[in-house]
């Protein structure tokens, strides 16, 4: 048996096909923030005609997002982040979104 395979945790279908891609979408939107902002600005400025007037911005946004979605290294990065968060949850019982919140100060 290959030792590298033994260390790799087995992912459930929902993790591989739903949860990790969700994380990928969130991170890709952060990395493509300039394209997201340009598209949003165009949509707000043109209103109803955005379908016709914002095709260039939409194309640039789709290209940026697709580049990240199809990158195996990006998938691996997101998978490792997901596994770290899952491990922390198993250790602490606190979901990642609750761990990242600011703690209230009593002073």
UniProtKB/TrEMBL annotation:
PANTHER family, per database record: COX ASSEMBLY MITOCHONDRIAL PROTEIN (PTHR22977), COX ASSEMBLY MITOCHONDRIAL PROTEIN HOMOLOG (PTHR22977:SF5)
Major localization listed first in the record, in broad terms: mitochondrion
Annotated GO CC locations: mitochondrion
Keywords assigned: Disulfide bond, Mitochondrion
Family label: Belongs to the CMC family.
Name of the gene encoding the protein in the UniProt record: cmc1
Phylogenetic classification of the source organism: Eukaryota, Metazoa, Chordata, Craniata, Vertebrata
Subcellular localization, as worded in the UniProt entry: Mitochondrion
Keyword Mitochondrion tagged: yes
Keyword set includes Mitochondrion: yes
Coiled coil location: none
Gene source species: Cyprinus carpio
Top-rank taxon: Eukaryota
Protein name: COX assembly mitochondrial protein
């Amino acid at each position: 048996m290959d030792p590298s395979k033994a260390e790799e945790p087995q992912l459930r279908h929902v993790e591989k096909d739903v949860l990790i891609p969700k994380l990928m979408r969130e991170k890709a939107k952060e990395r493509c923030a300039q394209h997201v902002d340009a598209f949003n600005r165009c949509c707000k400025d043109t209103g109803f005609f955005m379908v016709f007037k914002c095709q260039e911005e939409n194309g640039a946004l789709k290209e940026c997002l697709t580049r990240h979605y199809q990158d195996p290294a990006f998938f691996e990065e997101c998978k490792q982040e997901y596994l770290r968060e899952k491990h922390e949850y198993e250790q602490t019982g606190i979901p990642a979104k609750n761990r990242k919140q600011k703690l209230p100060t009593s002073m």
